[in-house]
Amino acid sequence: MDIVGFLKSQFICHLLICYIFIVSGLIINFIQLFTLILWPINKQLFRKINCRLAYCISSQMVMLLEWWSGTDCTLYTDPESYHKYGKENAIVILNHNFEIDFLCGWNFCERFGVLGSSKVLAKKELSYMPIIGWMWYFLEIVFCKRKWEEDRKTVVQKLLNLRDYPENFWFLIHCEGTRFTEQKHQISMKVAEAKGLPKLKYHLLPRTKGFAVTVQCLRNVVSAVYDSTLNFRNNENPTLLGVLNGKKYHADLYVRQVIHILIPFKQERIPLEDVPEDEQECSTWLHKLYQEKDAFQEEYYRTGTYPAVPTVPPRRPWTLLNWLFWALLLLYPLFQLLINMINSGSSLTLASFAFVIIIASVGVRWMIGVTEINKGSTYGNNDNKQKQK
């Protein structure tokens, strides 16, 4: 291992990265709080400012993937579609198989300049989480409780509020609702058999109601649906801890700007108005889309490539420059404080510092643990238990 790789694997480096992220994130959350006074005066200015502030937080995560880990991200897509990315509003359907698939989705947004304004459909609990959850609140992210009877009215209202959004945005959605595991896949396929739906090998059954409502509410605002399928070469199993350790992965992202359903590998663009508006028809449409996604996964596992032109979108320097700004701003006072504490020679002061380090270590491990598959959501499992009662 070279010296740079050795340093990247050291816990003290991880601690400093997390310190910069947490402190800068809380500062930005505090600034966002004050932007609320703009909402009744100039809503669009409020939104533009919060897009930039949100970028200061989310770009630090993307920096870890792009610059710290050095992960290669190859995009497979139609060259004609490539030139439209970032220049139109879009709904982006993502598969949900890996611990860092959300990070790769953000990386996709960053390469085309829509990271700060990107939207997601997220569980309500995340809105209470400092930094990212609070950032999303000011970005007007759509939160739901995963109980559709309670969620529908709130989700519809939040989506309709985005119709006059002043920035180009991508709405990222994991239609499977929860991350893929073998246990959840078995449960999902039992549901497919009971409902007479085609079985999938590499995906869970998509949850169609949220997608259908998103299409209905954002029609004439969003120009297209991008179907995205993510894989990693050489059967890599990427983790956030691996990224933090500086491990380099090789991501392949296949993006279709939506296809004619059930015509394999056809790249013809379909605008959003051609996606069925009726909820039942939209549900059928989405199930067929996932059959195709399964076929693409099968093809990738067999050949190691996708049926499209590979390209590597250029890295933009802004994620690194943003992180360096916060590092210079926050590390100097930290080191100055440490020097003063050591010079004081007080046992109580040093003991207090050691205690803070321990608490910080636990906090860092907890933040990493949130992304781990074996500690992920039990959403699919709980659904099955409720059906069995």
Automatic annotation (TrEMBL):
Reaction(s) this enzyme catalyzes, per UniProt: a 1-acyl-sn-glycero-3-phosphate + an acyl-CoA = a 1,2-diacyl-sn-glycero-3-phosphate + CoA; 1-octadecanoyl-sn-glycero-3-phosphate + (4Z,7Z,10Z,13Z,16Z,19Z)-docosahexaenoyl-CoA = 1-octadecanoyl-2-(4Z,7Z,10Z,13Z,16Z,19Z-docosahexaenoyl)-sn-glycero-3-phosphate + CoA; (4Z,7Z,10Z,13Z,16Z,19Z)-docosahexaenoyl-CoA + 1-(9Z-octadecenoyl)-sn-glycero-3-phosphate = 1-(9Z-octadecenoyl)-2-(4Z,7Z,10Z,13Z,16Z,19Z-docosahexaenoyl)-sn-glycero-3-phosphate + CoA; (4Z,7Z,10Z,13Z,16Z,19Z)-docosahexaenoyl-CoA + 1-hexadecanoyl-sn-glycero-3-phosphate = 1-hexadecanoyl-2-(4Z,7Z,10Z,13Z,16Z,19Z-docosahexaenoyl)-sn-glycero-3-phosphate + CoA
Record-annotated membrane-spanning stretches: 12-41, 323-342, 348-368
Biological process terms in GO annotation: phospholipid biosynthetic process
Domain of life: Eukaryota
Tagged with keyword ATP-binding: no
Domain Phospholipid/glycerol acyltransferase: 90-212
Gene Ontology CC: one annotated term: endoplasmic reticulum membrane
Pathway(s) per entry: Lipid metabolism; Phospholipid metabolism; CDP-diacylglycerol biosynthesis; CDP-diacylglycerol from sn-glycerol 3-phosphate: step 2/3
Record function comment: Converts 1-acyl-sn-glycerol-3-phosphate (lysophosphatidic acid or LPA) into 1,2-diacyl-sn-glycerol-3-phosphate (phosphatidic acid or PA) by incorporating an acyl moiety at the sn-2 position of the glycerol backbone. Exhibits high acyl-CoA specificity for polyunsaturated fatty acyl-CoA, especially docosahexaenoyl-CoA (22:6-CoA, DHA-CoA).
Protein name: 1-acyl-sn-glycerol-3-phosphate acyltransferase delta
Organism whose genome encodes this protein: Melospiza melodia (Song sparrow)
